[in-house]
Amino acid sequence: MLKIGITGGIGVGKSIVSRLFAVLGAPVYDADSRAKWVMHHNKALRQELLQAFGPETFTEAGELDRGYLAGVVFNNPQRLEQLNSLVHPHVGKDFEVWAASHAGKPYVLKEAALMFESESWRQMDEVIAVYSPLELRIKRLLKRDTHRTEADIRAIIGRQLSEEEKMRRAQHIIYNDDKQLIIPQVLALHEQFAKAGA
Questions:
Q1: Residues forming the annotated binding site for ATP?
Q2: Which residues make up each annotated binding site?
Q3: What average pLDDT does this structure show over 151-176?
Q4: CATH of domain 1-27+102-198
């Protein structure tokens, strides 16, 4: 079974690409939503988070206080790095367990924005980078995330690994640039992975 990563910066359309693969029957692991689940349910990680970020990390009801945590790490690269270094290894283990549960499939996908930054690309056989031009991404995000300003979006993009670097390091690129159709690109890769992983 092949393990395929899907990555790309905010606003490139990773989720659309993942949904198309899912429609074709490929199991998709969403690292973002699984990270939230793991932070809630993994006892060892909860302890690590409490030690690193204090009792305010969880509410009285035991829920992760994402607003508090976001406030601590936003604009603080060291604290963000600390948070990622705690969460990513647990998500990596969670992915391995999940992938093993789909052992009958020719391939599985892991969608992760920080595929290269978190070193989780090392768990993958191949990586797809989804690419969109910067101005198109900003336009999409202003429409989608109405609470964010253009300056906010540019700041987030500025903190992520550059698209050029992601494209250089990935084995496959899907262009979501409003010029090329996405479906034929996904279909071609689906056929390739299905054959290779069969």
A1: 11-16
A2: 11-16
A3: 91
A4: 3.40.50.300
